[in-house]
Fold this protein.
Amino acid sequence: MNFLKRRFSSGDLQGELRDEDFIPPVAPRKGPSPSAPSSPSKTASAPGIGRGFFSANKPTYNRDRCKTLLVIDDCHTDWSKYFRGKKIFGDWDIRVEQAEFSEINLAAYTDSGCMVDIQVNRNGTKVVRSFKPDFLLVRQHVRDAHEDWRNLLLGFQYGGVPSINALHSQYQFLDKPWVFAHLIMIQKRLGKEMFPLIEQAYYPNHKEMLITPKFPVVVKIGHAHSGLGKVRLGSHYDFQDIAGVVAVTSCYSTTEPYIDSKYDLHIQKIGNKYKAFMRKSISGNWKANTGSAMLEQIAMNERFKTWADECAEMFGGLDMVAVEAIQGKDGKEYIIEVNGSSMTLLGETQEEDRRHIAELVLGKMQIYCRPTPTMSKTSSTGGLMHYAMNGSQGPTPQMPPQQQQMQQNQQMSQIQGNNPQGNPANARGPGMMPIGGQGQMGSSPMPVPQVGRNQSMDEEDTMKNLRKTFAGIFGDM
């Protein structure tokens, strides 16, 4: 790959492309995203477009002490700014990489985890990156009306990448009838009054669409998403027509009664932060989530909180969840669906919500991304080698209990060597506390045991064996 180490002209990638930054080309594809149109766009003045993709300047993180966060979202929201300057484990930085599903390729291995390749175009600049993510934040729908990215989801799970929400729960959201089936379980447990789920019928294929429902009715074909794949029908003739459409799609379908609504309800929970919104269409569309709509944040109440809490327990627990409901003109409420970490953020509090998400991610990374303890040449390994080859001369910082026991054995051997008669009252070894003093491991007095000649010989043999063992591991010094 040495031929890649060259500088590009101003019309191409700026800076030096490293071997590890090269990946095969990927054809980018676009799809809908939960990011709201009012999400802040990154200005062109900031280097690297603020996503951790590429910058000709030096990185703002310590390469040797950082954890990589991969955010899957569109380019309307710059997630790197919410983690800039944040630390985990005291002094570890957060390296943020951001891309859409369509810009990602990956490979996962049983022994080395998941490696991600991304190729994106930002303001006419082609950016190529390859890295190993330590944590994942998914803000895009894994499956929508156009795309199904479960192959990437499987790769992240295969590589053991921790995520918000958990990858296991995101896999459960790949089919809306599966999610609705779990909502039915909640309703059976709490009752229809406490958890007012809308009535629904499920058809695995068009052949079962024989019983005419009560009209008007809403038919959802397949994994209906963001207003797509949903049709309102007013007669059994229309129902027969739509059954013919379902026949050529080879999809399942669901039907539910059409509710003449006053407004939609959106109840969200991010960690332990709750919010509720009212959304009313002003464009005349019966789908309040399409076209123009009036949005207003409303007060949370215990009823809404119960809905969010109960849904957050699904699939082993959801860190982020949004409950969608309808307030009918009949005065009743109807829960229609639930979304996970890809939920849409609404209203003027989107910035606050993103900060809450960032705090949630940092807290999870503190738990799931702890650095693996390693023995460096200058500390643990060096101390063991020095101890094995030279006895107890020189410190061995931050020794585990086994090393401390080894040091105590060696010290007792030195005591015996300096005191052949085995009189502990006259024994003083390097670094030893006087009798009646406090030992290294606690505040209680450390009694000096009676040491005999045979025990001293055994300890000397032990030290020889230890030296041979470390010599075999690290080689002859």
In short: The mean pLDDT is 76. The longest helix spans residues 453-474. The longest strand covers residues 113-122. Residues 85 and 174 are 35 Å apart (CA to CA).
